[in-house]
Every structure is written in C-alpha cells, then in structure tokens.
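Standup notes
- DV: blocked on the single-chain target, sequence here:
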Amino acid sequence: MAEQRRETTELAADLRAAVRGEVSFDAAARALMTMDASNYRRVPLGVVAPRDTDDIAAALAVCRAHGVPVVPRGGGTSIAGQATGTGVVLDTTRHLRAIADLDPAARTAVVGPGTVLDDLRAAAAPYGLTFGPDPSTHSRCTLGGMIGNNSCGAHSVAWGTTADQVRELDVLTYGGERLRLSRGGRDTVPEPLRKGLHTLLTNNLALLRTGFPELPRRISGYALDALLPENGVDLARAFCGSEGTLGVVTEAVVALVEAPRARALAVLGYPDESAAAEAAPGILPYGPLTVEGMAADLVPERERALLPRGAAWLFVETGGGSEAQARARAEEIVRGAQALEGDVVADAAGQRALWRIREDASGTATRMPDGSEAWPGWEDCAVPPARLGAYLRDFRALMRDHGFRGTPYGHFGDGCIHVRIDFDLLRSEGVARFRRFSEELADLVVAHGGSLSGEHGDGQARAELLPRMYGSELVGLFHEFKDIWDPAGGMNPGVLARPARLDENLRFAVLPAEPVRDVAFAYPHDGGDFSAAVRRCVGVAKCRTSAAPDGGTDVMCPSFRATGDEQHSTRGRARLLHEMLAGEVVEDGWRSTEVKDALDLCLSCKGCRSDCPVGVDMATYKAEFLHHHYAGRLRPASHYALGRLPEWLRLASPMAPLVNAASALTPLASLAKRAAGITPERPIPRLAPRTFRHWARGRAATPAPPSSPLVTLWPDTFTNHLSPSVGIAAVRVLEAAGLRVRLPRAGLCCGLTYVSTGQLDRARKVMRRTLAAVPTDTPLVVLEPSCAAALRSDLPELLADDPRAPQLASRIRTFAQTLEEYAPDWTPPRLNRQVTGQTHCHQHAVLGDEAERRLRAKAGLTGSLAGGCCGLAGNFGFEAGHYEVSKACAEEQLLPGLRSLAAGGEVLADGYSCRTQVEHLGEGARARHLAEVLAEGLGD
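- DV (later): unblocked, structure below
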C-alpha cells in the first residue's frame, strides 16, 4: 500500500511538471470521475484537464512512462461504462471546447473533443446548418464522446450516425504518435500502424465482408468493415465507436447538414408499443426527420393531455422551407398512418414541450410507476426496423420469464430500443439474474438480426457478449485491431477488446448492504433510505448545461452554470455523496470535507427536484448532510445569524429604528457582517418600522358577507419584518376579491432558514409548534414562495410521523392560486404593462407558477419572468464567499431581463430574495410582489 501511494505521488508530481492544465489527485476529483451514466464504477488514480494537444501528448508520455492507463472523457454521459477507468482520466470538457473553424460553404466545422454539441449547433445555426446526430444529452454531451461512441440520436433516420458526419480526425495514440485519419488516408499514418492494418485487412477480406450485419444502427464492436477497399479504407470511420480504446481525439473535422427552416411534429397514438413499432417502417417513405416511439409508462400523468389518444406514441418530425410546408408533410403522415389518433404540432413552444417528454425518458425510465428502481444495461440494442414489432413482443416475453419490468422507448424508425429494467443489482442473487437475462437477451437480439448496441456503445455492459453477435473469429480481429493501435494496452483497458465481465465493477457493490435510515427526512419516494435517494442520480447530467434549455424555464443547476465545475453540479454532488456512503475514496462519512465543499455552492434552489429527470433533490440532501456534519460541533457563523433569522428579527423588531441606524454606520455594519459570516458586498437589510402583524392588529377589516370564503394569510418572517407592504397589499386584493382574511397567532414559522442550514432538530421543533397552532379549516395563503415550498414539501418530510403534516401541506396556496380557486369570478384591474422579473426557484420546483401566469395575463401584464435562479437564494447570497457566484447566477437571466425592459415596465418578483437581488444588482430597478402591483391598480 505504501509503495502504491509513493508511485501515485510520483505520477502526480510528474504530470504537474509536464502539463499546463489542472492535475487533480485529491479524493474529490477522483470521486467525481468514478462513474458515468451506466451501472459501472471504476476509481481513477487522478484527473488531468489538458489545455491543448501538447498537454494531451505530455500527459500520455508521463502515463506511458509510469505504465498507467488513460481514459479520455467528455460529458460522462456514456451508458455502458466506457467513460470510467482506473488510471488517469483526461477531462476534455474544461479547456478543449473550442470551435476552431466553421466553413459554411464547405459545410464543415473543426472542433475540439470537449466541444458541447449544442454549442456547435448554435454556431452553425446562423448559416442554416446543424450537426445531424443529436442524442437526448445534446445540451452536455461532447463531440469527442460522440465520436468515441458513434452516437446517433433522434434524427439518424435523416442524417445517420456521428461516423457518417466525420471527415477527418487528429488523434494521439498511447505510444505518442500524432495521426491524421481520413477516408483513403492509410498512407498518411506511421509505417507500423499502416502495415498492421494492411495485414489485418488482406488476411481477412472474406470475414470482414460477411461478418457485419446490415442495419442502420450497428454500433457494436469495431467498424473494421470501414477498412474495406469498397468502403474507401476509411480510417476516420473505423476509429469512430472505438470508445477511447485506440487513442485520444485532439481535433475533428465534421460535416454539417442543412437545417430545415421550419419543422412540424406529427404525434400518432397506438394501443401499445408493438403496434407503434410495426407502424414505424411504413412512415419512412415519407422522408421524416425522426420517428421516435415511447409508451404511456414514461409520460407523467400531467403531460398526457398533450398527447393524442393511445397507450404508446410515435413522434414524427417533418421539415420544410416554410411552416406551411412542414405542417403539410406532417398532416400527410397523420392521414397515411394507421393510428388511433394523430395531432400535428407546428408551434415551436408546443414542439419543445413534447420533445422534452421524450428526452427526459432516459431519466424518468429509471423509476417504475410504483417508485422502484430501474437501470440501464440493455439500453440501446437495435434490430432491423421491420423486425422491431416482433422483437418487442419477444423482448416483453423474455422479461416476463425473468420477472423483470421495463418500458421500451427510442428510435423506432431505426429499430433502436432504449429501456431501463428493474434489475436487482444490490444483491448477489439479483446480479446473477441480471447476467442470465443479459446472455439470453443477447441471443434474442442476434436472432432478430440485430446489434447489441445501437447507439451508446458496448463498454462494460455488452462487450463480453460480442462473440454471440460476431463469433469468436471476428472478435479475435477486434483484439488484433486494438493491439495494432495500442500495443501497450494503455488506452481504456477492459472495454471493447478483452473486456471486463458485465457483472464486474458494478457501482452498487460498494454501497452499504443495509438501507441508510438514520436520517432526518422521510424520503417517502425512496422507502426512507438515504442511499436509495442518492442512487437516483444515474448520471444523465441534465444539470451540466451552461445555459437554461427549454426556452429558459429550467432552474437546474445554477452553480454549475456559474462555475463550470463538475463538483458544483447536481450530478457531481450526488457522486460525492455516493462515494461518501461507499467509504472507499471519500473516507470520513458525514464529516467529509469533500462533500461539504461541494455542497457549499449549492444554492438549495430545489431546481433539481423538478428539472432533474429522476427527481434528485439536492437541497434536501444538503440539509441532511449539514445536519449530520455539524452534529455536536460548532457551526459557521452564518448558520447562527442567517439560519436563525426568525429569532433575531423577533428580538430586533421592537428596536427597528435603532437597528437600522446602526446598520447604516459603515464601521458597525462591517463588524456585524464579519461576525455574522455575511459577505461584505451586501448591505444589511432594513427592518420595517412597523411589522405586518402590527398593521393588521390596528386596521378595520373590510366588511364581507359571512358566506364569503375565509382564508388564513400566513405572515411569514420576510413579509412580517422586512416587506410588510406585500402583506398589506395582499390583504387589500384578497378582500377586494370578496374573501375574508385572517392571520394565525404570532410566533409561528415554516422552518425554512433552519432547513436550509441543516438545523433540522430546531426546524422540526418550530414546525411542530406551527402544526399545533395553524387553523385547520381554511386554505393557508403564503405570499413568500420559499416559505410556501417549505410548508408544502419540507414540513411533511421532516414530520412524517405526524398525520397533521400532510393535511397542512395540502392546504398551502400561493397568492395567485388562492384567487383562482376561491375567487374565480373576480376580475383583476387591467394594468396593461410590460413585465420582467424572476419566478422564484422554489415556486418553479415545488408549487408551479401556472396560476401566476394566468393572473398576470388577466391583469394585462405581458412579457415573461426569468427562469433559472436569481442567485441570492435565501441565506446563500448573503454568506461570505458566495457573492461572485451569486452575481454570476443573476447575470444568466435576471439582470439581462432588467436591462431589456422598456421604460414604464414593471419588475415582478414574489420572493423576498429575488427582490433583494434586484435591489442590490439591478442598477436602480425595484421589484415588487404581484400583490403590490395589483393593489396599486385597485386605487384608493
């Protein structure tokens, strides 16, 4: 062990001396790279983020000298385990993202291996071009990873695979050779490689001509048939799909295709997925761009209203020079298809909403309808499209024979099926069943003339089974091919050639054998098991996007967008929690500094709760971790100051003028902020001279008939002590709408600030006091979205043993929801103003903002509010060390929206934090709660 540590230390030192990019051998960096989006886990020695090709060459030279393998890695979204490894991981995403050239005339682009697909598509879009292959991970997968896996995506029926679009590749081998690979370019590579390839080809022409099945999605194994003379001796194509086992791509010349000016989507309903699959080949003659299929099991109930009648659907995209042309082609498909029902969606927003359902399936499929877990492993096998319906019936029968469940979906037009299956990979007997099923399924795929992989590669999941598809002789040529390129075996060993067994290196094997139930939250969707909650993250990495997709509505993950650092993504934090539970790389359990540091920049925005396809709830995990991490220990000063804010505000309220005067004195304010752990860039918020409760006690309520609906207005800490104008305005509007308003007794709290700082014992105490005192006979109107979210979600999950908790949670209403539900006939004042502002991230994640949107429309408030997160996020933006990240989050959507607002426009933000961020960073802008704007419209 000591000798291994010494060798690793020397390796790290040599890499730091040779490489200009970052070299990280610490526990956190290694933990972040143990897994991709597969079932597999391998622990690397360290991580290198090369800055350029010379850095890659230097890293390879050092690793070669130390006899250490190398694993190239892009976005880490591989589903077969090929982006994991035991040596040195080359992280290409940090620096090698440049688009070196884009030639619209030649329709080509020169890209680095870390270039994100959506970035390339955005650069090509002004020229009417795009890159054809588009996996569902397009917002975070990289071109290098796509080349390594020969990725395809939804549009492969029109534009093929990545290999079809690669023109030239610059490659570095483990031995140090710099190669330029192209079609017909065998003479440009070094003599040993050229000679080895020539010998392999000439000695095996017959086998290479007959051993590969003809189907559009054959991704399994090495593409040796690309070397045949009739195929142009295409070295670049043969390299595609090699999964990092032959060399490192340092640059690629890729082809671009003309993007249709307009698109339409025909959505066709069928009784089941086999019927949809049998219909798919009949649609191909219409020349669609996509033919995608999925069944009802993968569609959330709330979104099924968007789809036509049926239990399975085909999504068929058409293109055209105009919207009318694209729509006409879609309507022709609807008329010609023998579907139960069909719709055509031509507007961009409607198409985005539908495509989001399909793209999120890779995550939503990891949970069965009853909440049990399902896993990849047989994620993307492919058969000839004409055989797909029959294959699916046989596949379903095989799952039934083994007692498994899963819902197929995928690229029906290409015969490629994705599916997550409820394998039991936590116990040895379950792993044995997984193996037996995998062997039988491989035989079934081959019997239907298919490929074990139709998109994501073989990796560790299927490479062991390649002899069942190709036979031992052709698989022997795969090993020979690998050895020609990589005689030292240093490139990603254990993958494709001489692979690890499919039941080795499973990521679940290192987790605790028993559920982790000694936790504060109930984790109702995970059986009360914190380990199961952490396992939700399967690595699809929707959190690793640099900008909000879907028209800017997503919140997740603001800290990653601000930093670009994996450890500050939802996936990165989940990986660290996984390794904390494993105890191998992250060794200190709940006391781990690695996990604490990663969670430090989590804004607890709850965006992942709604935007993550598998519902990872990192805000809850963070609160849980902090609860354990600081148990019996001194906490940071901000936890005492900001985490217990309701207590301090109640104490300070009687002395509000004095406190405000003191906080206006710079020396005193600076001293107070330093002592409280508050960032010096933020002013201390001013206390209201008169609280909202004080106002309410002294007013004469507007008379209303006793039959009028009675609502209880929650006087949250922020409204009561810092923004009483919001409460006053809300009372005015609610009463104008014909509602009777009352307040609960004083001293109650939702517990939000305690939860966000992990003071969960104290949170439960104040929540129990609230349960005992809040009236049970009326809806509870909560003006502050973060408090509403705490009462709706955190309270019942922390007080799962109290039957009153879910009852209270069910009565929580936002201001707009209350008006819509209890005063549906009330007409708000017509204000006719343009608006911008911020939808509170907790509202987006827990409560939804549909009622607010409808209320704004009724009031003539046009425009849209920013998605994402304002960046202040309760205590986060006030804490020392967070200011720059907080500001960067605001710059993503909120501040640009303020700058573009026309004169006379209105800035709306229902959250106190969001309004404060506007006040601090908005260059004179002032944000108001929707209640304040409507109350102003009521007049006197």
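- Follow-up: Residues 2-91 form a domain with the Uridine Diphospho-n-acetylenolpyruvylglucosamine Reductase; domain 2 fold (CATH 3.30.43.10).
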